[in-house]
Amino acid sequence: MLKQVDHCIWVAEQPLKFLGLEVGTRMTVILQLDSSLLLISPIEINSDLKQTLDNLGTVKYIIAPNLFHHLYLEHSQQLYPQAKIIAPPGIETKQPNLEIALTFDQDLINFNGELEYTPFQGFQGFIPPKIVKVNEIVFFHPNSKTLIITDSAFNFDCNFPFTTQLASRIIGSYQSLKPSWLEKIAIRDKETTRKAINKILAWDFQRVIMAHGNIVEENAKEKLTVGYQWLVS
């Protein structure tokens, strides 16, 4: 089911388990002025969702926002063979058989000036026992003043199963827009990451859409600033 967030931005959600916990996942859909659609972090698209998307516009880009959110790229490409896949560097090790049209490290993509983006340099993830590259790309949609992130912050609350609530309390991502202590452990080059988050926080956003957790509709910039205060201060 597609849910409208603003006049030209929608989200669709589906269940997803990570390390045995239900964390859910979310795709963001952006309609551009030329009636083209951008799918950020695609989920499994069933026939009803496809029909809704087709009624909105023509899918032009399918975007993997980091090296973890690539599971449905092939599925989406089969549904929309005319669309181009855009992904971060390193995606070829995850999806070697896919046709990747553009990568965020090599190509300047202007999205008709309707979507801005920046690599979250220095940001890494910790999946015990290893620190892993994330290569996350963060997006800003000026028209709706929306920041679109993936795994660089979470916002779990009472709408999630008890086990997820308990785990998010333990790792420090319950009812707060911030990364968990797992990400804090993984970030080694703090100066590079500090510069990246400061660049992100310079955008004039009021809402944050993340892949896991509830969307923050109000005072999102202030909440994300607090969430990264340990790094930016």
Automatic annotation (TrEMBL):
Superkingdom in the source lineage: Bacteria
Pfam family, one: DUF4336
InterPro entries, per database record: DUF4336 (IPR025638), RibonucZ/Hydroxyglut_hydro (IPR036866)
Coiled coil: none
Name of the featured protein: DUF4336 domain-containing protein
